[in-house]
Amino acid sequence: MARIVGGIGASHSPTIGFAKDTDKAADPAWAPIFAGFEEIKRWVKAQDIDVLFMIYNDHISSFFFDHYSAFALGVDDSYLPADEGGGPRDVPPLKGHAALARHIAAALVADEFDMSFFQAKPLDHGCFSPLSMIAGGKEGWSGSIVPLQVGVLQFPIPNAKRCYKLGKSLRKAVESFPDDGLKVAVMATGGLSHQVHGERCGFNNEDWDEKFLDLLENDPEALADIRLADYAEQGGLEGAEVIMWLIMRGALSDKVTRVHRTTYLPSMTNIATVIYEDLRGRPSPQEVEAYRRHMTHELAGVEKLEGTYPFTLERSHKAFRVNDFLHRLIFPEHRKRFLEDPEALFEDFALTEQERDLIRGRKWIEMIRYGVSFFVIEKMAAVVGQSNPEIYAAFRGEDLATFQKSRKVAMQYSVAGGDKAKELGKR
Q1: CA distances from 360 to 13, 122, 223, 330, 415 (A)
Q2: Is 103 annotated as catalytic?
Q3: b or e along 22-43 (b: 16 or more beta carbons within 10 Å of the residue's beta carbon)?
Q4: SS3 (DSSP) at 22
Q5: DSSP characters over 3-51
Q6: Cα distance between residue 142 and residue 286, in whole Å
Q7: Pair type for strands 94-96 and 78-79
Q8: CA-based nearest residue to 370, from 304, 328, 315
Q9: Beta partners for residue 237, in sequence order
Q10: How far apart are CA 226 and CA 91, in angstroms?
């Protein structure tokens, strides 16, 4: 079983990454920022932390308002720095612990948290600002991360109590992961008090920040009961993002040992760093096994359904590149290149030879077995002029006429639109 060693709280202001990138450590105005993160760096090294569960919010870099989730969990094995307008930071990518992420995903959904999942998305200063400060050098953070993006910028958003409850489930998820030597720290980012928009821009409240940290350590349930409007009043609207810290605190024991705490308000954001060590014992093997059964209950036995391939996070990750390639057939220019010069397009997307062969050979059932989603297969079929029933027949190893005999009505159809649909309708 993996183990939660402790929790970390750290601001993620772009000020922090800027200070690192411009070598401000020796400047008295900036030095306190480095001092706080140096404590985190020392603790992470001393505890030999393997994985940081990173709780952050994206700043409309990778997550825009066209599809904005409350909780989005990263399930990838690598994360690049995002371009936030002036080019990405010159920092190495972060390693992702995809297996742990998938396990946590299953646990949180089983505990009735409506999660979304992401891969192939870069992370912005919400993650990279604090992590770059505790990295050992140009090589970056030596361990792995599992990032959780919390959507706190477009209301309605999760409330403080929801975040706290998610932390409780996160603990059970980590402790049921089958890796006895894995040491995990839960790192919450954001805050403290600040507001960066409107006439109230520049608002801070250091008294509230100190009270928040006191309650976070000693009475987190009191913080879980505070309304979002009250967080905004006390700490600024953007400062209300500190509800993310309750995910970290919820994942820890009721009583914790505080190892470090500091704040520093140089400009717009009161920059804080805290470290708590967990004091709770390990769950019993029986408790862990019961929770694992709870996690897998909904899909238990589905593997016995012959010819059925649930599109799991593991399959999605394995076949992401080819699914992405085929999904882009919804864009006219991609379709045009696919039809006119597919080999060059394969090269641009770095498809493996196996993936290229699946597409060249229209190997529909082999695509399914590989991990390609049916719903991108039907897009490809529409592009190359094949109907859905032709694909269904191929899945079953039949010709179209044989397949149609198993239907009440023999009909042809497709997701194609316009002239392609009309052409198909004439068959």
Answers
A1: 48, 31, 57, 19, 21
A2: no
A3: eebeeeeebebbbebbebbbeb
A4: coil
A5: EEEEEEEE---HHHHHHHHTT-TTSTTTHHHHHHHHHHHHHHHHTT--E
A6: 34
A7: antiparallel
A8: 315
A9: none
A10: 37
Contacts of 297 (CB under 8 A, 6+ apart): 110
Q: Cα separation of 32 and 240, whole Å?
A: 23
CA distance 249 to 48: 20
Task: Give the model's pLDDT for residue 213.
Answer: 98
**N- to C-terminal Cα distance for the chain?**
59
The DSSP letter of residue 386 is -
Instruction: Tell me how crowded residue 18 is: count the other CB atoms within 10 A of its CB.
Output: 15
Contact 187, 248 (CB under 8 A): yes
CB atoms within 10 A of CB 390: 18
188, 8 Cβ separation under 8 angstroms: yes
Name the residue with higher pLDDT: 336 or 280: 336
Catalytic pick among 194, 260, 297, 317? 194
Active-site option among 97, 103, 125, 334: 125
CB 224 within 8 A of CB 164: yes
- AA letter at 168: K
Q: Is 125 a known active-site residue?
A: yes
What is the per-residue pLDDT across 22-50, written as a single tens digit (0 to 9) for each? 999 999 999 999 999 999 999 999 999 99
Position 60: which residue type? I
Each residue's pLDDT tens digit, 103-137: 999 999 999 999 999 999 999 999 999 999 988 66
The reply to whether omega before 92 is within 30° of 0 (cis) is no
Distance CA 372, CA 391 (A): 13
Give pLDDT tens digits for 149-169: 999 999 999 999 999 999 999
**Which residue is listed with tokens 């922090």?**
16
- Number of H helices and E strands in the chain, helices first, is 20, 10
DSSP 19: H
Q: Is the peptide bond before 192 cis (omega within 30 degrees of 0)?
A: yes
Report all structural domains of the chain as residue ranges with CATH numbers, in order of start. 3-299 (3.40.830.10), 319-425 (1.10.700.10)
